[in-house]
Each structure stands twice: as C-alpha cells, then as structure tokens.
Design brief:
156 residues, 10 helices
Length: 156
C-alpha cells in the first residue's frame, strides 16, 4: 500500500502532453492545475477548458489526476453534491411527470458519481471481518462430550 507521501509526489508526464502546454504553464504546473480546478468549480466544463488550452479533454483529465489527485477528487465531490441539490430542488418544483423523471435521473447520476468518488460517505462497501468481536460456538455432543472430556492424552 502506498504511503501518503508517495501519492503526493508529482509523477512525470509524457513529454508530448507537457509539450502542448505553453512554457509559462510548464514552469509552474502545480499552480496551473489549481487554476484548472478553480475553473471547473466555477462551472466550466472540462471540454471547454481543454478547447481553450488547445488540448484534448483526456489531457486535461491526465493533468488533473496526475498533479492534484486530492484536489481533483474534492472538486468532483463538490460538483456532484451541487448537482444532487439541484436535482432535489427540481423534483420539489416539478409540475409535470417529465420534469420529475428528468430530475430523478439527474439525482441518480449525481448519487452514482458520489458513490464512486466519495465512497467513504456515499459508498455501499460491505465491512468484512469481525474486528474485536468474539465468536462462541456451542455444539451439543450429548454422550460423546463425556468421551472427549476423558481423553487419555490430557487433551480436550
């Protein structure tokens, strides 16, 4: 399992990915990635951000995930919560069945995102193991019990 320090270190990106970015961006990549996250949090889509940079959306996702994984994850959680709130408001104000259905689907998508990105809170993980619990199993052996208790080797 990786330690926190190992995950926080920057991993080198392929030269082709960085070469497509302006020199001033490459010089201060962590700050640039924070700017990308701010743009996303302000409601700008990744596709629009990529278009403004002249790179593909996949390259933007790579920058975000490789250079600020925790910041990117946090922004995804925040946006999914925002979408969930908006969907709930739409359901409350819906007047027609089609609006209710649309709002319900939006809520499901937001919940699906939250289950994956913020699993600790919204996930459906099943806890495996007993922890500190003690298990006691009682089996009635009837007549055989006495024979086991009287074993000649001193065992039970």
């Amino acid at each position: 399992m990786q330690s926190q320090d190992n995950r926080a270190t920057l991993r080198p990106m392929p030269a082709t990915t960085l070469a497509k970015l302006p020199a001033e961006v490459r010089a201060d990549l962590p700050s640039f990635v924070k700017t990308l996250i701010d743009r996303y949090m302000d409601g700008e889509s990744v596709a629009t951000i990529a278009l403004s940079l002249g790179v593909s959306t996949a390259r933007v996702y790579l920058l975000l995930s490789e250079h600020d994984e925790e910041g990117w994850k946090g922004s995804q959680v925040a946006m999914a919560l925002k979408r969930l709130d908006e969907a709930k408001e739409l359901m409350d104000s819906a007047r027609e069945q089609v609006d209710i259905t649309r709002a319900r689907e939006s809520a499901r998508i937001a919940q699906w995102d939250l289950e994956r990105v913020w699993r600790r809170v919204y996930g459906q993980d099943v806890q495996v193991g007993l922890g500190n619990a003690m298990v006691q199993i009682n089996i009635d052996l009837g007549e055989r019990k006495r024979v086991i208790e009287q074993a000649p080797d001193g065992g039970e």
